[in-house]
Write a structure and sequence with these properties.
- By secondary structure, this protein is an alpha+beta fold.
- The chain has helices at residues 12-21, 58-68, 72-76; strands at 25-27, 35-40, 45-50.
- The chain is globular, with a radius of gyration of 12 Å.
- 17% of the residues are buried.
């Protein structure tokens, strides 16, 4: 499977800004580690962001785009 490189190297803060601009809000869930959880009530989408990472690989970004239910085309802009 070929992956688009434009989804590579996003930093956690960039992902969070993008999610919040697209209707996600941070929710509080008791978990260990440095993950932040986000939920979109309009789509029912839920995703977790690992704040301990410097950047996300293309595969991780593909997973985040699927979990967020936001088309990859919008992530690339």
């Amino acid at each position: 499977m070929k992956m688009n490189l434009s989804l590579k190297n996003w930093k956690p803060k960039e992902v969070i800004q993008f999610l919040m601009a697209n209707g996600f809000v941070q929710i509080k869930i008791k978990k260990s580690g440095d993950h932040k959880c986000f939920f979109n009530k309009n789509t029912g989408a839920y995703t977790e962001i690992d704040m301990g990472k410097k950047s996300f690989s293309a595969r991780e970004m593909l997973t985040l785009s699927k979990q967020s239910k936001i088309l990859r085309a919008f992530w690339k802009k």
